[in-house]
Specification:
The protein contains 4 helices and no strands. Helix content is about 90%, strand content about 0%. The N and C termini lie far apart (about 125 Å).
Length: about 230
């Protein structure tokens, strides 16, 4: 496969993916339109059923009228035979034959219309049931879609809240850390100030001859001599 063929294949694949993406995002809208189209087709089928039923009714009316005409002309033929008018009776018989042929045609039409109407009634009923179930399922899908959107929005807000909360907690910890460092610094400064004050006071007391001074080497040597001398 050359490069151009590969590019065309890739292009077709991209078009198919784009088409599928559009279908996915517009799935409910497309489904609603398909249901409307099916409902319109169902309405047209009902109109056709009404037309077939009307034709069946007309065919039955024609059959009833033809039967009446046949019965009436049979009476005419019998009377002609009673009067020994064979020619008139034959003419009437021909008319009866024509009526009977018409009756057979109308009866066949009536039966065909009746069968077609029955089949169409069954198809319409089945289609109505299918549409009803489909609409119920679509309602369920729409409700589920709304719930999922709401859950997604809540999840996004919750995620954002958690992120903001974490940021706030981090800021709080930094503030606490700075406060603790400041408190420790102030405590250390206070301790240094106290140490300096104590040292200054001890110096003043020593200079005034009030505070005892530290022991000298002579004092220590004198104490050791006392311990080593015999008693």
């Amino acid at each position: 496969m050359n490069i151009w063929a590969k590019m065309m294949t890739a292009l077709r694949g991209g078009v198919n993916e784009a088409g599928e993406a559009i279908v996915d995002t517009q799935a409910l809208r497309i489904l609603d339109q398909e249901i409307r189209d099916a409902s319109e087709e169902l309405t047209r089928s009902k109109d056709s059923l009404a037309s077939i039923i009307a034709r069946e009714k007309l065919a039955k009316e024609k059959c009833a009228n033809l039967k009446k005409q046949i019965e009436e002309h049979e009476g005419y033929a019998i009377k002609a035979l009673e009067k020994e008018n064979e020619a008139l009776a034959h003419e009437v018989a021909e008319k009866i034959a024509d009526y009977e042929n018409q009756l057979k045609t109308e009866q066949d039409s009536s039966e065909n219309f009746s069968e077609s109407a029955g089949n169409l009634r069954a198809a319409i009923k089945q289609t109505e049931n299918n549409l009803r179930r489909l609409k119920q399922q679509v309602d369920t899908v729409k409700a589920t879609e709304n719930v999922q959107r709401a859950q997604e929005a809540v999840a996004e807000r919750h995620s954002g809240s958690n992120s903001k909360l974490r940021t706030a907690m981090d800021s709080l910890e930094r503030i606490k850390e700075k406060q603790a460092l400041k408190a420790a610094t102030m405590s250390a400064a206070s301790d240094l100030a106290n140490d300096s004050s104590d040292s200054s006071l001890a110096t003043k007391l020593q200079e005034a001859g009030i505070a005892p001074t530290g022991k000298s080497a002579d004092d220590i040597l004198a104490r050791l001599k006392k311990k080593s001398s015999p008693k």
